[in-house]
């Protein structure tokens, strides 16, 4: 099992209602709630973010397909919205996606593009099986660290952040091996190889520091 992102999307909320700072791999943005829900509408709300994900995935997938085919379609537009119905404890969510192409796009092309839109990765994910797994951490747990050194670099492992995704174990078993004690063998590879692997830990459980900076 491998996470999609080397670094997870990170979110923080303080006491300002309900402004969240979302950090992604190349920057950050604000999310909020509309005023009617007690927020200040300074950024997209959670439902908008979800729909934006589908809208962008649809547009990017269509653009890739159109470019590969060499079709002359300058612009694609999409509207995405949702409504929900309740039946007792069951909530069903309907997401409607309306795609608009400029005049001149043939009906067969539109039909094919509709099929391609339905195959975009976020569509497939939303229509497939989704399980949200939640884990709880305390700041003090996150501070727990175990260290392993080869005299050149020191690998720091925070057990509470390790989701046991197995990436390090499968990709560099000579160093990361759950059957050995300790589970990190710093003589199993050179420092550069270990550093590269450590930087691929998806949860931040692994990090490294130069050994001479280790207190
Ligand atoms: S340390 Fe990181 S890469 Fe290794 S198993 Fe834990 S989460 Fe996965």
UniProtKB/TrEMBL annotation:
PANTHER family for this protein: OSMC-LIKE PROTEIN, PROTEIN INVOLVED IN RIMO-MEDIATED BETA-METHYLTHIOLATION OF RIBOSOMAL PROTEIN S12 YCAO
Gene3D superfamilies: 3.30.300.20, 3.30.70.20
Descriptive protein name: Divergent 4Fe-4S mono-cluster domain-containing protein
Ranges in a coiled coil: none
Organism: Niastella vici
Divergent 4Fe-4S mono-cluster domain: residues covered: 148-208
Pfam families: Fer4_19, OsmC
InterPro entries: Divergent_4Fe-4S_mono-cluster, KH_dom-like_a/b, OsmC/Ohr_fam, OsmC/Ohrsf
């Amino acid at each position: 099992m491998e996470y999609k992102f080397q670094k997870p999307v990170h979110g923080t909320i303080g006491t300002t209602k309900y402004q969240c700072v979302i950090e992604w791999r190349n920057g950050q943005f604000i999310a909020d709630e509309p005023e009617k829900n007690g927020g200040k509408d300074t950024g997209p709300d959670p439902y908008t973010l979800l729909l934006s994900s589908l809208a962008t995935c649809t547009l990017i997938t269509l653009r890739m397909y159109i470019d590969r085919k060499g079709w002359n379609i300058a612009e694609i537009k999409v509207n995405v919205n949702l409504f929900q119905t309740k039946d007792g404890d069951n909530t069903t969510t309907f997401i409607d996606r309306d795609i608009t192409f400029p005049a001149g796009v043939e009906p067969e092309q539109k039909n094919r593009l509709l099929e391609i839109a339905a195959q975009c990765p976020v569509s497939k994910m939303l229509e497939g099986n989704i399980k949200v797994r939640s884990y709880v951490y305390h700041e003090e747990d996150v501070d727990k660290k175990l260290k392993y050194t080869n005299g050149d670099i020191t690998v720091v492992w925070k057990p509470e952040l390790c989701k046991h995704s197995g990436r390090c174990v499968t990709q560099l078993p000579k160093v990361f091996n759950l059957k050995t004690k300790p589970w990190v063998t710093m003589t199993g590879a050179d420092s550069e190889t270990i550093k590269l692997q450590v930087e691929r830990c998806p949860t931040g459980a692994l990090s490294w520091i130069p050994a001479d900076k280790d207190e």
